[in-house]
Amino acid sequence: MKEAWLVVNAFLQGGSFFKMEQVLLEAARDQGMHLITKTNADFIRESSLLDAPPAALFFDKDIKLAARMEQTGMRLFNSADAIAVCDDKTLTALAIDKAGLPQPKTILCPMTYPGIGYEGPPFLHQVIDELGLPLVVKEGKGSFGQQVYLVNSLEELDRLVRRLGATEILFQRFIQEAAGTDLRLYVVGGDVVASIRRVNTQNDFRANLENGATAHPYSPNPEEARLALAACDACQTDFAGVDLLQSRDGPLVCEVNSNAHFLGLMAVTGRNPARHIVNLLKEAL
Q: In this structure, what DSSP letter does residue 42 have?
């Protein structure tokens, strides 16, 4: 029986994280693989990587640990570089822009330092001139839409930027016609294996299921599928949940999530991305 590791975070104990782990382990068993769960806290000692399998499913964002594993020659799904790009929305925006893919017009916030922050930042007038109001502010790192904000005025933007201080943030044009809705296309190994349309009827501009949205089965058109695959190529992911916005000018890349949960997607579509992800491991072994 082929053996590989499933690396998860030691400190995320919620029910959805446990369920994701179980779905991946079950998919491995169904394909005749022995997937051993390891947490990022299991690798304190240098000897912990002795006799490591040649490949691992790295379902965490501990980028430095991922890089350390790769230095031993392990093949990770996803790689440290891919996780790093997806885990910071400012880096994702740069990767999407470099690849020439459509996304909402984006401005990266000028860097400041911890303890210094911003004092009456005049550049916010330029941001509003470029993007209009309302506009979207995103922290570089965040999950489940919790660090994404809709700002309606200069005063509100000023307060938010001051509060976030040295946090990596970006500003994006608000796509009004896509408010509260998006598409989630789950891509594995260069194929869209499942997709949903998320709709929020709770007066929330975010379409995350955790914020009250509902999911519906969706069949992407060829343009949407091509854009999702190209976004994964730009971010170098082996698998990812790609979020697209349906604008009046065509689909736009919203985010690329290297560790996207798929329990809600499974429940709605009946399709299990874990089977495809495990197959990538089998091929690597």
A: G
Query: Strands 33-39 and 2-8, how do they pair?
Result: parallel
Residues 108-113: contacts with CB under 8 Å, at least 24 apart: 108/170, 108/171, 109/161, 109/168, 109/169, 109/170, 109/171, 111/166, 111/168, 112/165, 112/166, 113/166
Range of the domain at 190: 85-103+177-272
**Could you give the 3-state DSSP secondary structure of residue 285?**
coil
- The pTM for the full model equals 0.95
User: What is the structure's pLDDT at 232?
Assistant: 98
- Say yes or no: 61 and 96 in one domain: no
Distance CA 95, CA 233 (A): 10
Whether residues 94 and 212 share a domain: the answer is yes
93-110: per-residue pLDDT in tens?
A: 999 999 999 999 999 999
Label residue 11 exposed, middle or buried (CB < 10 Å: 0-12, 13-18, 19+): exposed
Cβ neighbours of 243 (radius 10 Å): 22
Overall number of domains in the chain: 3
Of 122, 156, 174, the residue at which a domain comes to its end is 174
- Last residue of one domain, picked from the residues 139, 157, 174: 174
